[in-house]
Amino acid sequence: MLEKPNLPDSRIVDCLRTDYGLDAVRLSFLPLGADRDTAVYRAVTGDATPYFVKLRRGDFDETTVIVPRLLGDLGIRQIIAPLFTRSNRLWASLDPFRLTVSPYVDGLNGYEVELHDHHWVDFGRALKAVHTAVMPSTVIERIPRENYSAQWRERVRHFQALIDTTTFSDPVAAELAAFLRRQHRIVSELVSRAERLASFLQTRSLPFILCHADIHAGNILIDTSGQLYIVDWDTLILAPKERDLMYVGGGLFGGRRSPQEEEALFYQGYGQVAVDPVALAYYRYERIVQDIAAYCEQILLTDEGGADRQEGLRQLTGQFEPHAVIDVAFQSEARLPPEFRPQ
């Protein structure tokens, strides 16, 4: 959320004091992220200790805080574990939000600062630790499972039909609609390719593991001492490992290195593993389809959001630029067996 929510700071300070026993003397809104339902703050207590405060509006899945807490307890140092409340929970209620607190790590994300060779290796090592972590069955049972749903593909088709018959008065919505009309063929191709590969994957039994599921450069944090952290666990899912591995070499780390360079360094830390090319290609297509649907919902169905709307438009149109994620997704076809390539 790039614009501060309509929530008095005093309510957040009171919640920190009541639920966490933290007396915040300073609270600063941080305009970070593209999620219009998530707001983040930096709180500082009287002893000058900083904390990261996250407010999540709408559906809240407790596993998104339970899992990083458990991963941190397993000794995975690249995880910033959330803190417990006085009542031994990992979140507090602050209507209409759920509030969580974690130690504040001062740093920059992977779009703002270049990942050096050792960061890529460390990233691979950390993700392998996540993928092989043993979670309690009571937690695993609560995490969503991949089913290759057509939900997002159907939403994109709906929006394609909507923009063909609707005139939008809001400038950002009008610009997005005009852009998607120009890109109609490419968008339709992304949807159809994702659908074809999903149909095949539904007939297979790839092993499911714990996946972060949104591990792009924006969710990699490099602190002031050069340490790497993986942040933002709101999209947890049990899925084939390719759900996470598709980000490496997928055009989602700022384009400072070639896909081959990213993969070579990452797998030094992760370890060599057989990557399923069909699953990899599917997830690269499906992620773009989901982004198109999500940004259309944000921009076309409401005029709310302020700066978040313009940023959403920028992020979506950027995916169509040369050498960006759409080009990379289409290039993934080269790794597919011949029977899966478009005729």
The rounded Rg comes to 21 Å
* SSE string: HEEEHEEEHHHHHEEEEHHHHH
Overall morphology? globular
List unreliable stretches of 5+ residues: none
Class per helix and strand makeup: alpha+beta
| Sheet with the most strands: spatial strand order | 1-2-3-5-4
- Domain tally: 2
Report the CATH superfamily of the largest domain. Answer: Transferase(Phosphotransferase) domain 1
3D architecture notes:
By secondary structure, the protein is of the alpha+beta class. 43% of the residues lie in helices and 14% in strands. The chain is built from twelve helices and ten strands. The protein has helices at residues 9-20, 63-73, 117-132, 137-140, 151-165, 171-182, 184-201, 242-245, 259-270, 277-300, 307-318, 325-331, and strands at 24-30, 38-45, 50-57, 92-94, 97-103, 107-109, 209-211, 220-223, 228-230, 237-239. A hairpin with a 7-residue loop joins β1 (24-30) and β2 (38-45).
Features:
343 residues; alpha+beta; Phosphorylase Kinase, domain 1; Transferase(Phosphotransferase), domain 1; 5-stranded antiparallel β-sheet; 3-stranded antiparallel β-sheet; 12 helices; 10 strands
Summarize this, please?
The protein is of the alpha+beta class.
SSE blueprint and pairings:
Blueprint: H1 9-20, E1 24-30, E2 38-45, E3 50-57, H2 63-73, E4 92-94, E5 97-103, E6 107-109, H3 117-132, H4 137-140, H5 151-165, H6 171-182, H7 184-201, E7 209-211, E8 220-223, E9 228-230, E10 237-239, H8 242-245, H9 259-270, H10 277-300, H11 307-318, H12 325-331
